[in-house]
Automatic annotation (TrEMBL):
Ranges of residues in domain FAD-binding: 9-160
Name of the protein described by the UniProt record: NAD(P)-binding protein
InterPro entries reported for this sequence: FAD-bd (IPR002938), FAD-dep_Monooxygenase_BioMet (IPR050493), FAD/NAD-bd_sf (IPR036188)
Coiled coil: none
One of the Pfam families matching this protein, by short name: FAD_binding_3
GO molecular function, one term: monooxygenase activity
Classification via PANTHER family: MONOOXYGENASE (PTHR13789), PUTATIVE (AFU_ORTHOLOGUE AFUA_6G14510)-RELATED (PTHR13789:SF309)
Top-level division of the source organism's lineage: Bacteria
Keywords: Monooxygenase, Oxidoreductase
Keyword Oxidoreductase: yes
Length: 191
């Protein structure tokens, strides 16, 4: 697939994975558009553990400040039985690989939305099909909008809306988007 003079990336899905991908692409010089089917960018759920790898990734996109401001340093980490005894305990190293923060998902999502603020952020638009293109042809993302369908050309498509082949594919991109995964699938837990 060719990459045009001003490379354009389309990220399908504006969850944690999609916004993190968008923030990274922006910093790498890509014109980036995030297409989200919901009417607004939002997140559900409770807290999540932000591991040392995650912290490096947040650092790389300039979103690591949110951890100190809004996260909670976890120490020690591990798994306890109901009676408080330890099944498994991770050794604590302040600067090591087991350093972990707990953070509310909405706050992480907001921090990533800030980091991706320079992207073209589109809501209320559902990606229904992706033509992955070829060696001399851009990919085309077909999007359902309130005003009909749009065709969005792209040099790179990042599928971050969960797809059938992803281990965590419980919702989001359906069968017709299988080609998105061949282009690139960034959904957490994807294979
Ligand atoms: C109720 C619930 C609670 C959870 N709690 C936790 C937790 O506490 N900790 C934890 O680590 N994990 C939790 N998870 C797992 C959770 O799925 C992941 O942690 C995380 O949200 C995955 O982020 P994501 O960006 O990959 O996917 P998502 O958050 O699912 O984001 C995908 C986005 O893509 C959009 N999308 C999908 N298809 C299309 C399309 N065709 N066109 C346009 N947009 C599309 C969706 O609307 C969505 O906004 C929970 C899951 C659920 C359902």
């Amino acid at each position: 697939m060719p990459v045009s003079a001003e490379p354009r990336a389309v990220v399908v899905g504006g969850g944690i994975a999609g916004l993190a991908a968008a923030a990274s692409l922006l910093r790498a010089g890509w014109h980036t558009r995030v297409i989200e089917q919901a009417s607004s960018f939002s997140e559900v759920g409770a807290g999540l553990g932000v591991t040392a790898n995650d912290q490096r990734a947040l650092d790389a996109i300039g979103a690591d400040g949110a951890l100190e401001r809004e996260g909670q340093r976890i120490r020690p980490a591990g798994t306890q039985f109901m009676d408080g005894s330890w099944l498994m305990k991770l050794p604590y190293h302040a600067a090591g690989t087991t350093r972990m923060y707990g953070m509310h998902r909405q706050r992480l999502h907001t921090a990533l939305l800030d980091a991706a603020a320079e992207a073209e952020l589109s809501t209320g638009m559902r990606v229904v099909r992706i033509d992955p293109g070829g060696t001399d042809q851009q990919a085309v993302v077909l999007v359902d909008t309130a005003n009909g369908q749009q065709r969005v050309p792209a040099d790179l498509v990042v599928g971050a809306g969960h797809c059938p082949r992803c281990r965590t594919g419980h919702r989001g991109i359906r069968d017709e988007l299988g080609s998105a995964c061949r282009v690139r699938c960034s959904a957490s837990g994807s294979r």
